[in-house]
Design goal:
Elements: E1 3-7, H1 11-23, E2 27-32, H2 35-45, E3 49-53, H3 61-71, E4 76-81, H4 84-96, E5 100-104, H5 117-128, H6 137-142, E6 162-167, H7 171-181, E7 189-194, H8 198-211, E8 215-218, E9 224-225, E10 229-232, E11 238-245, E12 248-254, H9 266-276, E13 281-285, H10 294-302, E14 306-310, H11 320-326, E15 332-334, H12 339-345
Parallel strand pairs: 1-2, 1-3, 3-4, 4-5, 6-7, 6-13, 7-10, 8-10, 13-14, 14-15
Antiparallel strand pairs: 9-12, 11-12
Helix pairs in contact: 2-3, 3-4, 4-8, 7-8, 9-10, 10-11
């Protein structure tokens, strides 16, 4: 049985979350009212997973995550209010080593959690299976990987390449590291599908934009992008490539049924790229739970594109990459720090 520690400064929320988890078959070993208690209780109980509030007295969730990851690493899922400040704080906590985030419906203290009980339980179960130490310390500290391969001048790349990156649990930091090291000279049209709540994707795009040579923004319906630009799939919407001409992608947002119980789904985006784009395509599948991306990998392979996946050692959860490998359509399995080089290998004009 999965053993969880629930941390929230609201006694009401601790009770609600604990009841949901226990009804879902997860043992709640203890509860904490602030980050300082969280640090102590993690060391005392060694839980399989921690649900961590963001804003708390004495020591907030961000500080608690950083301290826990230094002293006694365990998988942590942030529970955040659906606000801009909450999204920013949650993304900072993910930078410090938290594995995933769950948006509290209705605010910091809410009675709506019970309507999302199945989703909360499944997400906690996924995080409990994550390896919080999978990523190299240099990545966690800096938010980037090694020096960008772009620093090697004189590279020549194929014209009009498209890059699709898909990730789930544990993915935000890896996506950030990849885009931070991706050279603008390669001139990709980049589509990012990260399983993430709607309230977080705009802020996530802004963070990526600040660290990348690419112009990154949250996708809007009907817009076009060309080389050197990147779109992040909007939470709760599928990102579909609806057209391609003169090196520019046109996208649309759809709220059709979830695929693999998620929306946005990696498969939807990858399959639409494979159908519409006739220039070089590279698909990259990163850490995460489930099979989303496998059908997309097959579609990209059948369209003549390249498929890369993150390896097990550096993946917090080796579900998405493993399921893609099983299709037989993967060209390379790479550690996080080699993914950008692998991407560039697919579009170097001399390879």
């Amino acid at each position: 049985m999965i053993r969880a520690l629930v941390v929230d400064d609201s006694h009401f929320m601790r009770t609600v979350i604990s009841d949901i988890l226990e009804d879902g078959g997860i043992e709640v070993v203890d509860q904490g009212a602030n980050g300082r208690e969280a640090v102590r209780l993690v060391e005392e109980h060694d839980p399989d997973v921690v649900t961590m509030d963001v804003e708390m007295p004495e020591m907030n969730g961000i500080e608690a995550v950083e301290t826990i990851m230094e002293r006694h690493p365990v998988p942590i899922m942030m529970l955040s209010a659906l606000t801009t400040d909450g999204a920013d704080a949650t993304l900072e906590a993910l930078d410090k080593g938290a594995v995933d985030a769950f948006a509290k419906p209705g605010g910091t203290i809410t009675t709506d959690m019970s309507s999302h009980d199945e989703e909360l339980v499944s997400r906690v179960e996924a995080v409990a299976n994550a390896d919080p130490t999978a990523r190299p310390p240099t990545t966690r500290e800096s938010g980037t990987t090694t020096t960008s391969p772009a620093d090697a001048s004189g590279e020549e790349y194929l014209d009009d390449p498209t890059l699709v990156i898909g990730a789930s649990t544990g993915g935000p930091n890896v996506v950030e590291a990849v885009l931070a090291s991706l050279p603008g000279e390669a001139d990709f049209r980049v589509l990012v599908v990260q399983h993430m709540p709607d309230a977080f994707t705009a802020r996530f795009a802004k963070r990526l934009d600040a660290k990348s040579a690419y112009e990154v923004r949250e996708a809007t319906d009907g817009e076009r992008i060309g080389g050197g630009e990147a779109l992040v799939a909007k939470g709760n919407h599928h990102l579909v490539v609806s057209g391609y001409s003169n090196g520019r992608l046109r996208v649309k947002l759809e709220q059709s049924d979830p695929v693999h119980s998620v929306r946005p789904a990696i498969d939807v985006t990858m399959e639409s790229v494979a159908e519409r784009v006739h220039d070089p395509i590279t698909g990259v599948l990163l850490t995460g739970m489930g099979a989303d991306g496998s059908a997309g990998a097959v579609a990209i392979d059948e369209a003549g594109g390249s498929v890369l996946v993150q390896d097990e050692e550096t993946s917090a959860v080796f579900g998405i990459p493993a399921r893609a490998i099983e299709t037989g359509c993967v060209d390379a399995v790479l550690p996080e720090e080699e993914i950008v080089d692998g991407i560039l290998d697919t579009v170097r004009s001399d390879t």
